[in-house]
What does this fold into?
Amino acid sequence: MTETHEGTEPRSTRWLNDEQQLAWRELIALTTRLPAALDTQLQRDAKLTHFEYFVLAVLSEAPDRRLQLSTLAAQANASLSRLSHVVTKLEKAGWVRRKAIVGSRGSLAVLTASGYTKVVESAPEHVEAVRALVFDGLDDDQVRQLITLGKALVAQLDRGIAAGTGKA
Amino acid sequence: MTETHEGTEPRSTRWLNDEQQLAWRELIALTTRLPAALDTQLQRDAKLTHFEYFVLAVLSEAPDRRLQLSTLAAQANASLSRLSHVVTKLEKAGWVRRKAIVGSRGSLAVLTASGYTKVVESAPEHVEAVRALVFDGLDDDQVRQLITLGKALVAQLDRGIAAGTGKA
DNA sequence: TCCTTTACGTTGAAGCTTCAAGTACTGTAG
DNA sequence: CTACAGTACTTGAAGCTTCAACGTAAAGGA
It folds into this structure.
């Protein structure tokens, strides 16, 4: 990805410049290692994957601690399929219940009392880990930069996904 | 993770402030969606996972297109186990060969000619995707910010992992 | 009403990752 | 030279995610 390997494609590819290369490597390191570290901590301390924890956390903050599956999937950055499998697992653990919606198709995921307890119990150690892994290394200015940059990145990501989905 | 659920732990937990919360959500969205988008593109266009692509790319840029497995694992942000499984798969595809190191224990992963061709062929579309998913949304200043922030984040991540590994 | 399209969700299989255990080789201390 | 420890890597099983296919119910015409 560094040099211009020519002659393979119709038009010469626009490669990344040096700064973009650097940024890209950091981004890859971040998106590979951070999830791994979060999973390690939660697996060790709460027997949860980070995705499971996040689903429970999102539910715990939703009005009435319930959310439609498709909405929950979007908020948890997951496919409906992935969410459905995980909700099944969380249901077996007694932390979530599925509930049909009356006037409409679709169903709700409802956090149970036991599920709420689970999040509340797991949260402190998890927050400590998040601090140790991320925020202890950033001053307030950097946190603000991260918000701005993060928003820009996620927004572009969504645009890029929308564009890429259409053409192919 | 938003409110202070008190009374569960010995000492009251230091929760994240509002800005950290925001930054954290963006970071999670980013680390969840970006890898998924990269995998989708590479799976569609090159029948590769992003991790496989990255391994091949790292090898293609290494001196003599070869690297010791443990070194490659570190550069690819992966465990040795994960890498070993993937190298086995890449070997079966004919893109990589394992080669024992003479004077020392350990072995090298060597990129074959066919493996090199594979990266070169896959790169252009991948770079286009990276552009569309990331860099088309950032100006030069933001790219520089991303480098700085990314380095800070990865560095803290490594410190946090080192600390967390020890205590348990 | 009937047909078609679209949104919502589930499911099983295939593939990838992690985890724990195991092999082998290399220093190093006694 | 023998025992011990550490490094490098492999392996199989278990678990998670993705993919593709399917079922179902609402909405939109004709």
Notes: Chain B touches chain A through 74 residues (CB under 8 Å). The helical segments of chain B are 18-46, 50-61, 69-75, 80-92, 113-133, 140-167.
